[in-house]
Design goal:
The chain is an alpha/beta fold. The chain is built from 15 helices and 22 strands. The strands form 3 sheets. The protein has a 14-stranded parallel beta sheet with strand order 1-2-3-5-7-8-10-12-14-18-19-20-21-22. Strand 7, helix 8 and strand 8 form a beta-alpha-beta unit. The protein starts with 33 loop residues before the first helix and ends with a helix.
């Protein structure tokens, strides 16, 4: 045996962590007035605000009088154990779900201050009345109701909620309005979101302050008629193909946002909206859309042809509706859409054009060179080229048809400032140089034109105006 002894491996002693000295002196935060402490607590997550009650007798009841902002969905995620965080709420298989509902009920029941924001999705329609009554009594500002009953039952809104003077935002899903509405409801409501909620015919006329309306997954009735003196923004999602959207009287409507499939599945009529500035999405394969006395529709005898032929009927109208549109969004389903020039011709004062492309794969399409040029020339004079300032293309793969379209806009856009291309694939310097050369950026009509490439992601802010429509 070797007499050499193995050296023991010794670990270095742990470095002591200095403990900061406890500050001496009075508790300055607790000396602040209640109104300031209530404002601070209202900004904290509700569970953190409740935990401050153990600090001292001074803080024991402060959270009960602070403005309450409770979203039981995020409360659910924040309070569950990690292993239960992604489980579907089930009161039978998951006892934690019952604890969550008890916790939310206790917080609202013990709270004495105003309830500013309340989002409920853990409760059945039978238990909603307690929360709605408490919220209305304390001056609710923002309310969201999603009954937890998997669509078997709907929740009928109480009349006390319809008469709330403080409510500014209301979001409803699987709810219904009473059959007999009050002469005036929601006097100060600014935003209303309806998901799978039947829209009473006289609802909008009784909401005198409503500015934003979102309608989605509506299945009842052959048509939805919109008449509102105060409405400024309308967002329209629809799954049924039998429902027609008719905007009869909306003198202050500025923005009409349609789901990218809405103009294929549904007929849309805008009869009176003289201040309309933002319109989209108009699908290039549009079924029928009427703007004033201008009708854009497919020929009935060519519904099955690829690409379909279009009829654009332009007649004098009593209002300057199409000239008011400054921002337009178009959805292209195929590589080449011959209806694009016909649609753009209807908007002579267009300044911003957003194009969402098909789900392509980057392969070159069979398109004869100059095909776009021929389609544009058939339309005659296109006055929108004298006003167009920005173009955004979402889903730019660099196909030949994309290049041909952009080349025409670059060569003829007299005041064009920026063309933003959102590419679904990795962008290289070689790709950018090739596309700039193919688009003929050196022959641009506007000396201030800039061609910008971005990697397309869901969080991309350059298409933010229509993000709700794209990712709904």
């Amino acid at each position: 045996m070797s007499s050499r002894k193995r050296k023991r491996e010794t670990k270095p002693p742990p470095v002591p962590v200095p403990v900061p000295p406890r500050p001496d002196g009075p508790d300055l935060i607790s000396q602040l007035p209640d109104c300031i402490l209530h404002s601070i607590l209202s900004l904290l997550p509700i569970m953190n605000a409740v935990r401050t009650s153990v600090l001292s007798s001074r803080w024991r009841h402060l959270w009960k009088d602070a403005p309450l902002r409770l979203n039981d969905y995020f409360f659910n995620l924040d309070t569950r154990p990690p292993h239960d965080r992604y489980l579907v709420p089930d009161p039978v298989r998951n006892p934690w779900f019952n604890w969550l509902r008890w916790a939310v009920f206790s917080i609202v029941n013990l709270h004495h201050g105003p309830i500013e924001i309340l989002h409920l999705s853990l409760f059945t329609p039978a238990t909603m009345d307690f929360f709605v009554k408490k919220a209305v009594q304390t001056g609710i500002l923002q309310l969201k109701l999603v009954p937890f009953d998997f669509g078997r039952h709907t929740y009928e809104l109480p009349l006390s909620l319809l008469g709330s003077n403080t409510l500014h935002q209301l979001s409803l899903r699987r709810c219904r309005f009473p059959q007999a509405l009050l002469p005036s409801i929601f006097p100060n409501l600014r935003e209303l979101r309806l998901d799978s909620v039947p829209l009473p015919h006289d609802l909008l006329s009784k909401c005198g302050s409503l500015e934003t309306l979102l309608i989605s997954t509506y299945y009842e009735g052959p048509s939805i008629s919109i008449s509102s003196q105060s409405l400024r923004k309308l967002v329209f999602h629809l799954a049924s193909s039998r429902t027609e959207l008719i905007i009869k009287d909306a003198p202050n409507l500025e923005s009409l946002m349609l789901a990218d499939k809405a103009t294929i599945r549904n007929k849309v009529k805008v009869l009176d909206a003289p201040k309309l500035q933002r319109l989209g999405f108009i699908n290039a394969n549009v079924r029928a859309i009427q703007l004033g006395n201008t009708l854009i529709e497919r020929h009935k005898e060519s519904l099955r042809s690829l690409p379909p032929t279009f009829l654009v009927n332009v007649t004098p109208c009593r209002m300057n509706l199409l000239s008011s549109v400054k921002t337009l969004a178009i959805k292209m389903e195929q590589y080449f859409e011959e209806s694009i020039p016909s649609i753009l011709k209807c908007f002579p004062c267009l300044e911003n054009l957003d194009i969402m492309k098909y789900e392509g794969n980057g392969d070159e399409c069979c398109l004869n060179e100059g095909m776009w040029e021929e389609q544009w020339e058939e339309q005659g004079s296109l006055s929108f080229l004298d006003h167009l300032k920005t173009v955004i293309v979402k889903g730019f793969w660099g196909d030949q048809c994309d290049v041909e379209l952009l080349r025409y806009l670059v060569v003829h856009g007299k005041v064009l400032r920026t063309i933003t291309l959102l590419c679904p694939k990795h962008i290289t310097k070689k790709f950018v140089d090739i596309k700039k050369r193919q688009i003929c950026i050196e022959n641009r009509a506007s000396s201030n034109l800039a061609l910008v490439f971005f990697r397309d992601t869901k969080e991309n802010v350059h298409f933010s105006l229509w993000n709700d429509m794209i990712y709904y």
